[in-house]
């Protein structure tokens, strides 16, 4: 039975690049083959439950602008209505997955026992809807940053009772994710960081965070969860400094605590920008270390200083992101989650559908451009040419040598290299041929 929220909006169809229909796909054709694989299976789109259904239109300077039939989100009846609307949207879009935080799907009860009971109740309800719709769960996670109990962190909190509450909360969310057949479980430490070092024992907090994540991995194996454990880098906001600052920081953290073979990364475009990096940098670094797990696809407003989580609309940026994803072998359990939200002035149900349609089209265009670049091989050829000198026997031997031997060789052979062009503009022009 329809909720009526999306009345008048039919399932989105692929109409091709000449279509002018704002509620049709122009580039995303799920069954189109790209590099020997269906486009849907490459992209593995997921809708973010929080921004699409739980977010009320607030920003750092203003409150609620959205008035939805499931507001206020304070009882289980409205939680079920929200789920009904969500699955109607999943059907309209035809996306294969969705993602949730516990606080998105169930109302806050103020204590662990009741939070767990309502989470189990609503995830049973979601599971029934998944069975009839065919929509899967890309990942679940716990919101351990919104409620006041988390104001000084979760696993890094100076109060051991908060650590205990955090551990119990994650156990419940992992159980629910496992029950629903989730393909990953994500930990995003929204307040795992500090506001001032004057009241922070950083060494203790990092050790507690490392031990907490080790417990998560142990519990994964105990319950037989076959999905991937992911952590999500973010540098700041809301905390002044977060311990999961960027990909490099997370890799160092995982190695320090012996978790680099158990945990991969869920990388968000907006977080990369806040850390002072490009999205492609973060993806390439994670891929180079075998830790690229999944992505949150969005963008930031480059004129704003916070994480604006806008839907993607920049084909060149998206193409370079998927270039590194495809080069690394593509997604395994991961996918493309739209951790993106409407502008707070975009009030209509049609706006929510149109935002996802446009984002899915941009990703499809980017994927096809990335595949075309890989099949053409121009970037790989340029890279091989630039590093060709390292294929010589002398260069390979140098890496097993020592400073004295190398200096003697420079003297004896009169080595005095001339710089060679990096050809950056030529390569940027090359990329623009495809996007």
Could you list some keywords that capture this structure?
about 425 residues, alpha/beta, TIM Barrel, 2 domains, eight-stranded parallel beta barrel, two-stranded antiparallel sheet, xylose metabolism, metal-binding, Xyl_isomerase-like_sf, Xylose_isomerase, EC 5.3.1.5
In CATH terms, what is the fold-level topology of the largest domain?
TIM Barrel
Strand residue content: 5-15%
Number of strands: 12
Q: Describe the sheet with the most strands.
A: 8 strands, parallel, barrel
CATH architecture name of the largest domain: Alpha-Beta Barrel
Q: What is the CATH domain class of the largest domain?
A: Alpha Beta
Total of helices: 16
Secondary-structure element order, N to C:
EEHEHHEHHEHEEHEEHEHHEHEHHHHH
Shape: globular
User: How are strands sequenced across the largest beta sheet?
Assistant: 3-4-5-6-8-10-11-12
